[in-house]
Description:
The chain is elongated. The strands form two sheets. The protein has a four-stranded antiparallel beta sheet. The chain has a two-stranded antiparallel sheet with strand order 5-6. By secondary structure, it is α+β, with helices and mostly antiparallel strands. The chain has helices spanning 2-10, 17-58, 66-77, 86-110, 116-125, 131-153, 174-183, 190-200, 219-228, 245-256, 260-267, 270-275, 300-314, 317-326, 330-343, 350-363, 370-374, 413-420, 444-463; strands spanning 164-168, 209-213, 232-238, 291-295, 429-432, 438-441. Helix 3 runs antiparallel to helix 4 (86-110). The chain has four domains: 2-114, Chorismate Mutase Domain, subunit A (Up-down Bundle); 164-230, Dna Ligase, domain 1 (2-Layer Sandwich); 239-314, no CATH class; 317-425, no CATH class.
Amino acid sequence: MENIYKKIETELNTLSFQEREEILTKLRTEVDLIDKEIVKLLSSRTLHSVLIGRVKRSMGLPTYSPKREKEIAEKISNYFKEPLSREALLRIYERIIDESRAIQREEANRGNIFNISSAFVKKGFGKLFNKKELLLVIFFFIIILTLLYYTFFTSNYYSGNSPVRFEIKRGETFNSVVEKLYNEGIIPSKFNMKTAAFIYSAEKRIRAARYDIPNGLSYLELIDLFVKGDADFLVQVNVYNGSTLPWLASRLRREARIDSVSFIQKAIDKNFVQSLGLNANTVEGYLFPRDYFLYERSNPKEVIELFVNGFRNFMTDSLIKRSESLGFSIHKIITLASIIEGETNKVEEMPVISGVYHNRLKAGMKLQADPTVQYLQMNGWKRLLYNDLQIDSPYNTYRYHGLPPGPINNPGKAAILASLYPQKHNYFFFVADSKGGHKFAENYAQHLRYVREYREWLRNQKNN
């Protein structure tokens, strides 16, 4: 037939009428043979469908199984080959399944109306078994099916309260998951669990998440929970440089379904903060910016501990010693870093701004840092007015000398390093320029000139 296919594909228009008739005859003959085979296979499939119906009835199971029919449709849709489309194939199988279901239903209503055993002997096993042996074989298979059902479909029960909270970690192997399930008493057999996963083809499909496992699940139901059931999934959350507690609480609510009010309450709980080893009233400043993986609906305590551990991992012994050499506590370094973070997002400017603040602190000057006043605004960032600079708060560095009581945001790596390693220079002032950066001045007169230039630029922008 390969030669015929090739001729039709490449030579059809060049063949004589007689040659085309010969090809047509051969193709029709081939179709007749295929039809014969299809009918044979359909009969065999119907035979097995009837047997399945009888076995189900003997086990007290319903004949109709929407889940099984869905699985068949999913498998069949992967078998299609052109020119037969997937949709056409599914329509054909839908009719085949309808007819099989009708025969099963007829048997269920009228009793065993088909002499299946006899037909089976004639068609397949007649040459191998006599009737008595055939009955033994069928009985054997019924026992096997019953054992399989008992092993994989019957409920498993554990002791203790239900449901049990169970965690599958990112990158965890299936063998590790099974080991934990067994050690926690959720399943009685590791082998049965692994076999069920093999049958389900689920070893590579389980999802990293936290699951509430109710009591009484079978092995297959447990696998189904891990593959497509409801859970608290592992999500990636980014703590951005300079993020504040309210901003982070809102982000966690949106992206990880964590209660924002509970998060804020825990973040400002002084007893909890000090239990983390922090000499601070809140965790503001110590939630280190970077990407984190955490579970949806995680406890705020757990989330904060994760973020603070990120800070601890960054603050090496050498950085702590550097802080001590400057005569600063870690808390003051982080507070200064948060102001630097609030002043600029240009990493190359951070050491210069840090140098300005170090110079002002040494000289006993007020920091006069706008970000500390912005921190006091109830409705978020705004253009500051003269009245804002008069707010009576220790965070207002226009009124009070030295650093504020604590960080005003959670500074990133660059800002922290800048606060530890300020650039040495003679600048005491800086003001925004027209390019997104700052101009630095050594004296107040020079600073005022830069301020006038910036205000002139702003006026021109408005006029244009």
